[in-house]
Amino acid sequence: MIEESTREGRQLVKIARPLLDDIIEHATGEPHQEVCGVLGGKPGIIERVYRAQNMAKTPAVRFEFFPRELMDILDNIDTADLNTAGFYHSHIASSPYPSRTDVNEWNPEWYPDAVYFICSLKNPIQPEVRAFRFDEDKHLVEEPIEISS
Asked: Angle at the Cα of 123 (from 4 to 25), degrees rounded to 5?
């Protein structure tokens, strides 16, 4: 069961409009499959988007990173003196809320400060992006997004 925390300690996630647009363009560019990627930056501040390929056997309903590509992206983030600030993926026909599979496959112990962006193409004319993280009790918490220019 997905629980949503009601704690007051929500954290604002900051992202520049061009970076958010890059996530949306990645999703709308491949509307028949989920896309995925990694977000570089500092905790709560997204500074770079790294697109990845989805290698899942059923890419219309799930995503999976190529291990070597993911390692290369993580190395690039480290070389750029950034942190792995989060991850993103798309949902092609459902709302921008983590599915049970999403929750079960995310391990908050690996990246405890990571934020997870989901871009929904349920309404392809108006893609919707929401951000989530796991709190210290491993409850799913939606985080507000601040978009700068």
From this structure: 95
Q: What is the mean pLDDT of the chain?
A: 91
Rounded-to-integer distance, Cα 16 and Cα 32, Å: 26
Q: For 26-46, what is each residue's pLDDT tens digit? A: 999 999 999 999 999 998 899
Across the strands, what pairs with 39?
49, 86
Distance CA 31, CA 115 (A): 23
pTM: 0.90
AA letter at 8: E
DSSP per-residue codes, the chain: ---B---S----EEEEHHHHHHHHHHHHHSTTS--EEEEEEETTEEEEEEEE-B--SSTTT---B-HHHHHHHHHHHHHTT-EEEEEEEEESSS-SS--HHHHHH--TTTSTT-EEEEEE-SSTTS-EEEEEEE-TTS-EEEE-EEEE-
